[in-house]
Amino acid sequence: MPDVIVKVGGGLLSTAGDLDGVLAALSALARWCRLLIVPGGGPFADAVRAVDRNRAIPDDAAHWMAVLAMDQYAHLLAARLDGAEIVADLAETRSALAAHRIPVLTAYKWLRDEDPLPHTWDVTSDSIAAWVAGVSGAREIVLVKPRGATGDLLDAYFARAIPSHVRTTIATAEQVGDVFRDIAARSTRNVETA
Predict the structure, then answer these.
(1) What angle do the packed helices 59-80 and 42-55 form, to 10 degrees?
(2) For the whole model, what pTM was predicted?
(3) E strand intervals along the chain
(4) CA quadruple 158, 160, 166, 170: dihedral, nearest 10
């Protein structure tokens, strides 16, 4: 199972070069620990929000449309990340990791089957990644945010979704290299002491 869940925010698409830098750092980190990438929604979810503002989409429909937006971004990430493989659940994640691939989650089907979270804009890809961390047994989650992001960076439901044993780190695009090096160093120490 994955050691670390990395939620790659869709806001990275707004600054040239940031997504490529994060993907290169992810590729390097994958040599040291087992990752599962959870995509954000980015401009795909923003389109759902815009329609919701103009047409008042029912909460259930808006929720599932936003989750499908995450699946769209997952395909973009997998296409750009060397060694990536689209997965839809923990069984596929396990298989991808066993084949030394980097799993990128398309969560729609899994979430439809389990339906573990409220259908509200208080739940974003951050809370979905937190739920995935809990059910997968991951010990750490990194939420990658756009360059220069400040303030309240988590959705309103995140604190309820994240298990207490999961270490949480928020990293902006310019901080990712340092954060991932720290995780790799901890992984190396864990291997040496085992």
Answers:
(1) 160
(2) 0.95
(3) 4-8, 35-39, 84-87, 102-105, 140-145, 167-172
(4) 20
Q: pLDDT for 53-111, tens place per residue?
A: 999 999 999 999 999 999 999 999 999 999 999 999 999 999 999 999 999 999 999 99
First to last CA, the chain: 17
- Fold adopted by 4-188: Carbamate kinase (3.40.1160)
d(CA 110, CA 169): 25
CA–CA gap between residue 11 and residue 144 (Å, rounded): 9
Domain boundaries, the chain: 4-188
**Residue 126 corresponds to which tokens in the numbers above?**
């951050």
Beta strands in 60-139 (DSSP E): 84-87, 102-105
